[in-house]
């Protein structure tokens, strides 16, 4: 698992949808409600909502759930008010973790996250201790079977992208975080369908984790954080070699 690339996380996310369908839909519903509260319910004028709808449709979230979440965000239906929170911390081996959360009870959420860190050999950090180790980039994922590398690279650069990385199953297009929606729309107009398009945090310098025990502990901590109802995204600077990751997964 590479800290500076999330394509493998996306695959894992899709692979676990059957086991955690309700939890995933609840988190997406929260995101939609908050996006609509701040930017309205029309995805044509709300880039944040467009991004979340892409995730929801990729996960086959029912249309009724989507409609209900949007109406809660616009005030057409009663809903809960969520606070956007960022927490920072360290995991085993000094791995840096940055978390984005939506909570209706900040004190409860803080206690739950602190307990998860303690249980898995990590600790929460003060604001600013970790965030400077990351930078924010726009990320667009495109399936490899859809288009050739050269054609996509040319189209992406013409659309204003900064770089493109090639992975086993995906192309990963990197943009300025404020331009990801604009680049995505240009690619869409050219008939290039993205699997996801969002702004995310990437480590400035990935931290190699080559010890199997440490890797197992780090992954257990990340899984526990992602399983929390209030945690929307977890970013880390760890970079686990494929051979170590395979051993950890085989032993699970």
Précis, in short:
By secondary structure, the protein is an alpha+beta fold. The chain is built from 9 helices and 10 strands. It has a domain of 68 residues: Orthogonal Bundle (Arc Repressor Mutant, subunit A).
**What's the total count of β strands?**
10
**Secondary-structure content class:** alpha+beta
At the fourth level of CATH, the homologous superfamily of the domain at 7-74 is Integrase, N-terminal zinc-binding domain
**Ends apart, CA distance between termini:** 16 Å
Q: If you compute it from the alpha carbons, what radius of gyration comes out, rounded to the nearest whole angstrom?
A: 18 Å
Mean pLDDT: 90
Largest sheet: 4 strands, antiparallel
Task: Give the SSE order as H and E letters.
Answer: HHHHEEHEEHEEHEEHEEH
Number of helices: 9
Query: Runs with pLDDT <50, length 5+?
Result: 1-15
**CATH fold call of the domain at 7-74:** Arc Repressor Mutant, subunit A
CATH architectural grouping of the domain at 7-74? Orthogonal Bundle
Instruction: Please state the overall shape, judged from the principal axes of the Cα atoms.
Output: globular
Helix percentage range: 40-55%
